[in-house]
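dumping this here before i forget
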Amino acid sequence: MNDEMLQQMVDRQAITDGLHWYTRWVDLNRVDKQVEIFTEDGRITFQGDDAWTQGRANIEALITPLVAIYQATHHYISNIEITFDSADEARSQCYLHAWHRPADGSDDFILYAQYHDCWKRTAAGWRIQERRLKTAGTEGREDGGAGLEPLGRA
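structure:
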């Protein structure tokens, strides 16, 4: 095993840890910690190419009211795939299963989706430069996830 392969193994684990870091802080309703996984100029979209929110502070402002409406959430990450564009840039894709209990007493809902991320190595470690949430479907939502970017199928 050469040094490059060994470094990629370490980097894969760091990126995987970052994915889990994000969802742990979501479930604890700590958006301030959750957004630390993004680069300062990172961007995110739930709705597709025309709906980007850029900058860590803006991402925090976007996400805070979205998670505040829930009494509890529980996010599961699986099927993680990581590819390296260079020693300092990577892409990941993973499945997301997210349960949500609204604080207003309305019905729980479940989101079935994927995160598609572009990562960059920084002085603070691997950080997300770009995140796309692509939705396969939902349960318990009247709109069925309308307004979210669909996953799409061939």
